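Notes taken during the Thursday session

The instructor put the following on the board and asked us to keep it in front of us for the whole hour. The protein is Multidrug-efflux transporter. We were told not to look anything up and to reason only from what is written here. First, the residues (446 in total):
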Amino acid sequence: MTTGPIRNHVLRMMSFMLVGMLTQTLYALVDIWWVSRLGKEAIAAVSVASNLMFVVLAVSQTLGVGVVALVSQAFGAKNERQVQYLFNQAQAQSIAAALLFLLIGYAGKDYYAARLAGDAITAGLASQFLAWFIPAQSLLFLMTGLGSALRGIGAMKPGLIAQVGSVLLNMLLAPFLIFGWLGAPALGVAGAALATFLATLSAVLGLVWYLGRASTYLRIDWAQWRPDWALWRRMLSIGLPSGAEFLIMSLILGLIYWVIRPFGAEAQAGFGIGMRIMQAGFMPAVALSFAVAAVAGQNYGAGHHQRVRQSFTESAKLNIGFMLLFTLVCQLAPALMMGWFSSEPTVVTVGADYLRYISWNYVASGLIMVAAGVFQGLGNTLPSLLASASRLLSFVLPVLWLAGREGFQLHQVWIASAISVGLQMVLSLALLRREFRRKLTAPGAG
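Then, after some discussion, the predicted structure tokens were revealed:
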């Protein structure tokens, strides 16, 4: 990706990433669509429990971003031995993280459900869902270790095939395990999580099988699994700011679930469905972020600084087009999309209002993601973290103040969120411009 048109490389990487991300989003959409047949408490329970996914994303990003940055730079410099070593170190690191998350998750799942759920019924259902959702999320660390190295060398197809296969299996298993079709156990919300666990496990096993047979020089070498603490610290130092961004996102979502508890399970269910729809629409921006990280990283490693700048420009143009289209859809037909997942009027109204207000920040959110991808490619994600942390001041504090006032309404939360994202975009782009001046040669010189 160090030669040829930048836009073509970005679009190629994005196309693979987009299909993969869409399949991951389908996990959430399939779960919520089937679970909605169990009632608003079940929807709220799965929504509250699934917020834990952002904690997983925070940790997996911490692991994966450093791997992508270092592998793409080593690959761009044609250092195959270093790429192989980084790959094996990444596997050891991801397995350690998976085991730690599994232990902590099971120890705190009941407390987590009780603190965020709007009522006792919702809390009980959330705990049931987490019993299988936690091990399913643990497997995502293994997917990160395998997929990040492949993404760093530009090999997108294996991960895509694994993800598509797993989502198809999830779609097949979910109704049987939720409702007990054809004699299968009727597990309710727990069945949705079990289906996700089995599907994710199949994806991990598929990638391991591929690496054992493929011609790529990425090979599992147990001798290289002994922790290289200096390298681990380096990978984590690159990935930690990016992971912290997802942790901040998890905290913000947790705050929202907490402040809207007085409005009941209907409000939490409406917000949960609206979030799933928004996440689905954001997939082009997320895919662009991952794509530009690899493209910028390889060109930065090869010393092609002007191409790094071009990778941001081309990705930003594509992002604006995608996000404007999604904004228009959410302005014109939010209730129609909500109606696919729930027939309860209050749930639909809450979700539709959320989408209508929050869609005003879609373009800004997409630009933030693209900038974050470039920061990853440059190997410095701290500026992106600083921009995300700004929302702790511009969103969290105002919402806590509003929630304590008489006459507090849900739409005030959505407006505060949209404004805070706009401010974050301004800061993120300013920091990216500063990073370009610090690390890249003048246009035309690199």
